[in-house]
Q: What sequence folds into this?
């Protein structure tokens, strides 16, 4: 196989997490070795399908996912499971960005294949931590919010770059430092070490979203800040959860004016 889009489709379709991780790492290595190439002439998917995933976890509405305290191993396992589910979805989101959208420079496809590779490593670390708690991926209910946004933005690379990395994934930059502090208070250094890796590497993933969102705006002769706010209003009712991790978001490409605009839209948790 030399077609990167076909390799991305295979990674998306894999239902077993271990197989999805294996295919993801193999595709990334093949891309680095020059064995895979984007093919703008290959068939563009007409619709978005449910990505491959195991039968569990059970997917429920977000409001039905139980909130557990971190004072017990079960509560910490539930937190690790929730983050593992986000990372599993993020693997699919990164590969869908490669598979679905055509006509970008080669660096676009390299960025998102690299993100998929990172997310697969993150999932593996969290899966190992779950096993240390006596659990496995699928043991707790989860929601499908990340992939629902992928479905809503399947028709538009502009909307996808704006709303998945720069809104939903960027939320992780905001909330992870607080998780780390809570875990530090109970001495869970193993989980903290994993979250610190994820937080550091997610900055680059959000930055990739910023970079390609602005590329889309330039291509379409759109002003980026007004376009971003317009997409927030169209898809998310014009509001975001705050507060924001200003340092991490600025490292990921948000400028001071954008941060002021986000603060004006923010609602308290």
A:
């Amino acid at each position: 196989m030399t077609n990167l889009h076909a390799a991305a489709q295979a990674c998306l379709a894999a239902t077993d997490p271990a197989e999805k991780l294996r295919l993801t790492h193999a595709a990334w290595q093949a891309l680095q070795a020059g064995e895979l190439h984007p093919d703008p002439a290959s068939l563009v998917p007409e619709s978005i399908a449910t990505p491959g995933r195991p039968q569990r976890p059970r997917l429920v509405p977000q409001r039905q996912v139980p909130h557990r305290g971190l004072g017990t191993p079960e509560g910490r396992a539930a937190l690790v499971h929730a983050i593992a589910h986000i990372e599993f979805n993020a693997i699919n989101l990164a590969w869908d960005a490669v598979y679905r959208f055509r006509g970008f420079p080669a660096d676009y496809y390299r960025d998102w294949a690299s993100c998929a590779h990172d997310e697969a490593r993150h999932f593996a670390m969290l899966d190992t931590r779950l096993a240390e708690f006596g659990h496995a991926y699928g043991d707790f209910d989860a929601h499908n919010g990340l992939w629902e946004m992928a479905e809503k933005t399947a028709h538009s690379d502009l909307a996808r770059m704006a709303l998945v990395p720069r809104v939903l994934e960027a939320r992780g930059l905001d909330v992870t430092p607080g998780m780390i502090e809570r875990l530090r208070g109970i001495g869970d250094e193993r989980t903290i070490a994993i979250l610190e890796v994820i937080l550091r590497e997610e900055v680059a993933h959000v930055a990739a979203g910023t970079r390609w969102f602005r590329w889309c705006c330039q291509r379409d002769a759109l002003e980026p800040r007004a376009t971003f706010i317009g997409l927030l209003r169209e898809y998310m009712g014009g509001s975001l959860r705050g507060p924001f991790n200003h340092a991490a978001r600025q490292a990921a490409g948000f400028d001071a004016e954008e941060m002021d605009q986000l603060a004006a839209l923010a609602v308290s948790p």
Summary: The beta strands are 240-241, 266-267. Residues 189-219 form the longest helix (31 residues). The first strand starts at residue 240 and ends at 241. The chain is about 65% helix and 0% strand.
